[in-house]
Design goal:
Length: about 375
C-alpha cells in the first residue's frame, strides 16, 4: 500500500466560513416548499371561496320555528384560522422531518464517495465506491470516479515499475564503466584504445537510454497536435535509414504500400516507424531473415504493419513487450542498435498520444507482427 503524502508538502487550504450542511439546506428547502404550498392553498380558499360568503348577520327563515341564525364570513374566518394555522405548522414539521430523512437518503451516495475519497487521500488506492443500485446521476458519477481511480492506480504502478527498471538499466553501463576503470587502474600497462572503446560503448548506451527516457517523459507531459500526415513517408524514411543495418545483419528488408493520410505528428510517426523497423531488424534470425514494412487501410483507419522473422514467441510474453524494459525469449540486448528495452514502449506511447492502437502478434513460424493503426485524416 502506498504511503500517504506528507501534510507538510501540501499547500495550505484557504480558511472558509462556517455554514449549514447540505443536508440541512435541503431539509429547509423541502420544509419551505411545503409551507409555501400550504400557504398558497389557504390563500386560494380565502380569496376565491370566502368572498362568496356574505358578511354581517344572516337570518334564514325556517319553516318549523320561524327564523334561524347563520354564520357569516367573519364567523367562518374565526373558526377556520386556528385549525388552519395548526395544520400549516404540522405540515412544516412534517416537511422538516421528511426533508431530513429524504435529504439523508439522497446524499447517502455522496457520503460514500466522500469516504472513498478520504481513503484514497490516506493512501489506499485500492478503495472503490462500487455504488449499487440503478443507473442514475450518482451511479454514473461513481462509475466515472472508480474508472479514474483504476487509471491512476495503473499509471502509478507502471511509473513505479518504470522507475525501478530504469534505475536497474542505467546502473548497468555505470557498473561496466567502473569495472573497466578498476581493471585499467590495476593494470600497469593498460591497452588505452581498447579501454577507450569499452568506455565509449558504455557511455553511448547510457546516453541512448537517457534519451529514450526523456522521450517517454515528453510524450506523457504534453500531447502533440494532430495534423494530416502521410504514413507511407514515415515507413519509407525508416527503411532508408536502416537499410545498411539490415544489410549488415543479412536481413532482407522490404517496404510496400500506398500513401495513407492519417491524423498525427510527422516527427512522432517517423520515430514510431524507426523504432518498429529497428526492432524488427535487431530481433531477427542470425542470418537469412526478413522484415517487411507495409502501409494500408484497415476498416476506415490507416495502418503501419511491420513483420519480421525470428524465434518463436509465447503469446503471453508478446502482450508484455510494450512495457518498458520487457524482452521476450531470445530477444537479447544488442550492443549497437538494441538493448535499451524501450523501443516498443516508446512506440506504444507514441500510438497512445496520437489516438491510435498498437497490436502485437506472435507469428506461427517465429517472429513478430506489429500493427499500428490511426484515424484517417
Amino acid at each position: 500500500m502506498p504511503e500517504a503524502p506528507s501534510n507538510s508538502a501540501l499547500p495550505p487550504r484557504p480558511a472558509r466560513a462556517g455554514g449549514l450542511s447540505v443536508r440541512w439546506r435541503l431539509t429547509l428547502s423541502y420544509a419551505a416548499l411545503v409551507a409555501v404550498t400550504g400557504a398558497v392553498l389557504l390563500g386560494v380558499v380565502a380569496l376565491w371561496l370566502l368572498r362568496y360568503v356574505p358578511d354581517g348577520t344572516v337570518y334564514n327563515t325556517d319553516p318549523i320555528d320561524g327564523t334561524s341564525w347563520a354564520p357569516n364570513r367573519s364567523d367562518i374566518i374565526r373558526a377556520f384560522v386556528p385549525p388552519a394555522t395548526w395544520a400549516l405548522l404540522g405540515l412544516i414539521a412534517i416537511g422538516v422531518l421528511g426533508g431530513w430523512l429524504l435529504a439523508g437518503r439522497v446524499l447517502r451516495p455522496l457520503a460514500l464517495m466522500a469516504e472513498t475519497v478520504q481513503a484514497v487521500g490516506d493512501g489506499d488506492l485500492d478503495a472503490r465506491i462500487a455504488l449499487p443500485g440503478r443507473d442514475d446521476e450518482f451511479r454514473r458519477l461513481a462509475d466515472v470516479f472508480d474508472g479514474m481511480l483504476d487509471r491512476i492506480q495503473h499509471d502509478m504502478q507502471r511509473e513505479r515499475r518504470f522507475a525501478a527498471n530504469a534505475s536497474h538499466e542505467l546502473r548497468t553501463p555505470l557498473a561496466i564503466t567502473r569495472a573497466v576503470l578498476d581493471v585499467a587502474e590495476a593494470d600497469p600497462d593498460p591497452d588505452v584504445p581498447q579501454l577507450l572503446g569499452r568506455l565509449r560503448a558504455a557511455n553511448e548506451r547510457a546516453i541512448a537510454l537517457t534519451e529514450a527516457l526523456l522521450l517517454l517523459a515528453r510524450l506523457d507531459a504534453r500531447p502533440p497536435a494532430r495534423v494530416p500526415v502521410d504514413l507511407s513517408l514515415a515507413a519509407e524514411g525508416a527503411v532508408e535509414l536502416l537499410h545498411e543495418v539490415a544489410a549488415s545483419r543479412e536481413v532482407r528488408l522490404d517496404a510496400t504500400g500506398d500513401p495513407v493520410i492519417v491524423r498525427g505528428d510527422a516527427a512522432l510517426l517517423d520515430q514510431l516507424a524507426l523504432n518498429l523497423v529497428q526492432n524488427a531488424l535487431v530481433h531477427n534470425l542470425p542470418s537469412g531473415g526478413s522484415a517487411t514494412v507495409r502501409t494500408l487501410r484497415l476498416g476506415g483507419q490507416g495502418a503501419l504493419v511491420v513483420e519480421n522473422t525470428g524465434d518463436r514467441l509465447d503469446p503471453a510474453v508478446v502482450a508484455t513487450l510494450v512495457e518498458p524494459f520487457q524482452r521476450g525469449a531470445g530477444r537479447a540486448r544488442d550492443g549497437a542498435h538494441g538493448g535499451s528495452g524501450l523501443g516498443l514502449a516508446i512506440a506504444g506511447s507514441i500510438v497512445e498520444v496520437l489516438g491510435g492502437s498498437l497490436a502485437l502478434t506472435a507469428r506461427p513460424d517465429g517472429g513478430l507482427r506489429v500493427e499500428a493503426t490511426f484515424p484517417l485524416a
